Amino acid sequence: KAGVTQTPRYLIKTRGQQVTLSCSPISGHRSVSWYQQTPGQGLQFLFEYFSETQRNKGNFPGRFSGRQFSNSRSEMNVSTLELGDSALYLCASSLASQGEQYFGPGTRLTVT
Amino acid sequence: AQRVTQPEKLLSVFKGAPVELKCNYSYSGSPELFWYVQYSRQRLQLLLRHISRESIKGFTADLNKGETSFHLKKPFAQEEDSAMYYCALKGTGANNLFFGTGTRLTVIP
Known about the structure:
Chain A is mainly beta. In chain A, 0% of the residues lie in helices and 54% in strands. Chain B starts with a strand and ends with a strand.
C-alpha cells in the first residue's frame, strides 16, 4: 500500500505570493491533518479534514486555509506569504477520525 | 490548555546503557499519549501509544496520571535507536496531535 505523498517536495516563494501544497492520503483513509514544523516552534497543528469537512483548526491566521476533495486528497493554501512561513509542512492521514496518523515526507517551503 | 514538555533537547547514551526520554503533559481531560520517532532521512512514524501498552523495538512507556508523565524507556540502547523522538498528546474526541519539541537521542558505539 502506498504511503502518504506530498507535492511538491520543495518550494521557494517570494514574500507576498501565495502557495498551494498537495497531499494524497493512503488509499481508503478519510482523515487528513496538516502540521507546520519549524526549528523555533516545533510541530504545530494547522487543521484536519474528514470527509471533505474541516473538523478542527489550530491557532494559525486566516492566511492558512485548506480543503479536501471527494477522493480524500487535500490541499492547503497560504496567501500573502511571510518570511516566517518558511517551514516543513507535514500531512498525515488516518483511516478514521480517531485512527493512527501516518505522515508524509513533507513539503519544504522557503519564503525569500 | 494542552501542553507537552520534553525537557531534554539532546540526549547521548552509550550502546548497551539504559535510556529514558522524558515527557510531561498538561491536559484537563483524559488524553491519549504517543511517542513518534523520526530516523535520519525518514518520515515521522508512530512508535508507541499508551492505550496499546505494548513494547516496540524494546521501548516501553507508561502513562503516570499522577505525575502527568509518559516517559519512554529502553533497558539497553542500540545504535539504531539514534533518532529524533517526539512525545505527542491527542485530546478527548479530537484527532489532532499536540507535539513536544522533541529529543534527539544519540547512541554512542
